Amino acid sequence: MERRKPKANSGLISSRERRILILLAEGYPNGEIARRLAIPLKGVREHLERLRHKSKTTSVTTLISFALNTGLISCYEVLESRFAKAKRSKPPVPLHTS
Question: CA 57, CA 54: separation in Å to the nearest integer?
Fold first, then answer.
């Protein structure tokens, strides 16, 4: 399967805004996004407000849908981010049966 490259409108948002969108699409709450990016919670909220203004959306769900449909982020980026996180986590401890 061929990967889609981000469309031209990806220049409309900053790299920080893209990272926030990806984390948001993964389902992380604002507080966790702030922790992962080492920025204040207020900063995450301000970025989201700018993103909603730029995209003319009013909810997180429509913002994520807009970002995916316009190529601002791709489902591959979300999946890659999730896969990288899973690789870093410890493997489950095998159960021993007696």
Answer: 8
Q: Residue 16 domain-assigned?
A: yes
- 20 in Cβ contact with 37 (< 8 Å): yes
Q: Is residue 96 part of a domain?
A: no
Residues spanned by the domain of 31: 11-85
Q: Taking Cα atoms as reference points, which of 95, 14, 25 lies closest to residue 67?
A: 25
Q: How many CB atoms lie within 10 A of CB 81?
A: 16
pLDDT values of the chain reduced to their tens digit, one per residue, 98 residues: 444 444 445 468 899 999 999 999 999 999 999 999 999 999 999 999 999 999 999 999 999 999 999 999 988 888 887 666 655 555 555 555 55
Is the pTM for the entire model greater than 0.85?
no
Number of domains in the chain: 1
